[in-house]
Amino acid sequence: MSFKTERLTWGIGGKTVLDAVSLEARPGEMLGLLGPNGSGKTSLLRLLAGLKQPQSGRVLLDRTDLRTIPRRAVAQRVAFVEQHATTNANLKVVDVVKLGRFPHRSLFSGWSRADEEAVDGALEKAGMTAKRNDFWHSLSGGEKQRAHIARALAQTPKELILDEPTNHLDIQHQIALLKLVSELAVTSITALHDLNHAAMFCDRLVVLKQGRIVATGTPGEVLTEELLRTVFSVEARVEVSPHHARPHIHYLR
Ligand SMILES: Nc1ncnc2c1ncn2[C@@H]1O[C@H](COP(=O)(O)OP(=O)(O)OP(=O)(O)O)[C@@H](O)[C@H]1O
């Protein structure tokens, strides 16, 4: 087991945003989190990362209640790239990525070869090696997003939480990022809006509607024409792609 939630409930201002959400991310899988705008994806990811506390229910990390695990121990294994991640200081890209090593370092340890290798590897995987010495403010939106991904990878997490990570990325980098995440030896939970990308790369999908899970399973099990109509309010035809054998959605005009 990796992440598991048990009847997680959270709300704000009298509104229930997440209603008894129970899910499990299996070790090593890429779990896609889908749902229309406002369905609760970001709220759920923030609960999983321990940035919000549930009003009832709990998050388990390898069978241990997340609330009982020290923050530093969580940070050593869980990396989270938020939807609107910002970095204010005008640091170089490499310095931002180095921040990912922070949870692994003690007060007395120097910068190690392992730290250096983690940073170099993360920059490479995120396609940011050529920009390592560029200043943050000189980056495009997509490059900033990739630098945040690199920082998360430098953390060498066992669990990776990504909130719409392909936002701002051109199509080449969207595909490259999703392929990278699907091939990493980590458990990942990724909120996505592009259902065809989710179908292509995720092992399993969880679909939220108004804070409740309405479907869980493989892309082939979940992405039905009926679900597209009732959850996403679109008419579509779903075929098995002859190219990658996953569902492919044709939206109808
Ligand atoms: N801090 C907050 N204050 C008020 N309302 C909030 C807060 N956080 C979440 N909500 C509300 O909870 C609902 C779910 O929001 P959330 O951001 O989790 O949805 P989402 O599925 O990630 O949406 P999107 O696809 O648009 O990013 C929304 O109606 C949102 O307005």
UniProtKB/TrEMBL annotation:
Residues 3-235 form the ABC transporter domain. Keywords: ATP-binding, Nucleotide-binding, Plasmid, Transport. Pfam families: ABC_tran. One of its GO terms (molecular function) is ATP binding. InterPro entries: AAA+_ATPase, ABC_transporter-like_ATP-bd, P-loop_NTPase. The keyword NADP does not apply. It comes from Azospirillum humicireducens. This is Histidinol phosphatase. Belongs to the ABC transporter superfamily. PANTHER family: ABC TRANSPORTER ATP-BINDING PROTEIN (PTHR42794:SF2), HEMIN IMPORT ATP-BINDING PROTEIN HMUV (PTHR42794).
